[in-house]
Amino acid sequence: MITPPERDAAGKVSLEDLLRLKRSERPAPEFWSRFEEELRVKQLAAIVEKRPWWVTLRLPQAARVLARFQLPVGAAAILALGFVVVREYGPAGGGASETASPVLVANAAGDSVVRAASVPKVESVVVSVLPSAVPVPDNVSTGLVAVARASDPIVSEVPSGEVAAPEIAQSGQGVLTAMIPWAVSHAPSGHAESARTAELGELPQVHFAANMNPGRDHSFDSGASLETVALSSGMVAEAVTVPVQAAPVSPREIRRNRILTDLVIADNNSDVERSRMAQVREVLTSSLDEDRLYDTVRRVGMGGDRLTLKF
Amino acid sequence: MNATSKVVAKTLVASSERQLEAGSDWMVVQRVQAGDVAAFDQLILKYRERVYAMVYNMTSNREDAADLTQDSFIKAFQSINRFQGQSSFFTWLYRIALNSALTHIRRNKLRSFFSFDKVHEDATVSAVLNQLTDKRDVEREVFVSELQEKLNEAMLKLSIPHRTVVTLFEIDGLSHEEVAEIMNCSVGTVRSRLHYAKQLLQAELQSYVR
Fold this sequence. Notes:
The complex is a heterodimer. Chain A is mainly α. Chain A is 45% helix and 9% strand. In chain A, the strands form four sheets. In chain A, strands 1-4 form a two-stranded antiparallel sheet. A two-stranded antiparallel ribbon of chain A has the order 2-3. In chain A, strands 5-6 form a two-stranded antiparallel ribbon. In chain A, helix 5 crosses helix 7 (190-201) and helix 9 packs antiparallel against helix 10 (271-299). By secondary structure, chain B is mainly alpha-helical. Chain B is built from ten helices and no strands. In chain B, helix 3 (40-59) runs parallel beside helix 5 and helix 8 (160-171) crosses helix 10 (187-204). Residues 1-14 of chain B have low confidence and may be disordered. Chain A binds chain B through residues 1-2, 4-5, 7, 9, 11-28, 31-32, 35, 38-39, 42-43, 46, and chain B through 44, 48-49, 52-53, 56-57, 62, 66, 69-71, 73-74, 77-78, 116-122, 124-125, 128-129, 131-133, 135, 139, 142-143, 146-148, 151-152, 155, 166, 170-173, 198, 201-202, 205, 207-210.
């Protein structure tokens, strides 16, 4: 190998001459034949249209593979679709955020109308008797008032937060006591009593269902002229309890009211109460059957050696 | 003034040989544009060695040079309809090849492999080599290989514009005007870059250059 320092000045050329050596670097003739072939291939590849990416996915082959598992895939798809449909369009559970639509409520005289604004779902209602002389202010809006008359199928609802007012709850208990004598025996004393009062204040909507549907069998006795008023905590008007007429007299009504009382009390969130409510419903069902049985028995009469049957 | 003369007039090259060449190229290009695709083969055969040499001297790798030359011809074929004869076809094709080579060099800045073509000794080259060494046969071949490597190393040490100027002017034999047209710069810039590049090469190859 020749190292540059070994050469003398005579062995040097100009830069242009040296660069001329670069010009003489040329490929062999066989190189150009290969070059030509490669160029043809590249030209054809450039002419051919490039396949779009979705063609390279091989969807027909994938569909053929899936066809083998047609039944399980179809079942899974139906299940998934059903799940989604039920989840998306099914009934909302709980309804905690449900809002009630505005209700127009009129009292007995029909001279005072209170508009209930759109309020949250009502969980409890206070029932008290409104004398016709007690005026209901028109400007009561936020803490709203619900007016209902047993004879009128109108439902009034009050936000649950306002039911906690003790006097209202007590008045509710009073009304319930007046309506259902057995409720007294269920009411505990002391602190438990106040809790009980709160419970009673949270009467379920079955009352309103009864009012809305007076023709139903389990409605309260329409003989009692009952007016209910729920007052808000900010309301000045005082809830007045009016003595109600005597309790139902017939054993049938007594039994029915007892069952309904249990049903009302049982309508709470605790599991114990729920199970009890289920029992009460069973009793109610069986009692209805018993009523029919009693009716049947009354049609049968015994007189001496005669047996009479009324149709 | 017909199209051929217009192309010739716009060609910056002053030599009559280049003017005739540009005129004939434009006629072939028009045939290709008219649908005579096979006519493009004439242009490939005419310019493939020159284009290849330019790309080879820029990359110092014959495989890369072959690929880039093929790509340059394909690009030229695909966009031949956009060629309006504003410049000579040769200049246009050179610019395509040069841009391909520059893109390749920039992409592979950190990866450079030498792959040389053989030096074909003609009378001029033999005279130069005789001046450089008095060795014969195997020792002479070794010397030529070493010199070739030194030359390419020195070329690769130049910046891309300087390497381009040296390649186009000194090796490919284009004029200053053609180089300026291909590189899209002024003739003065070409001269300046050429001067600076020669100084750098002289410093790199001082043991061979007087």
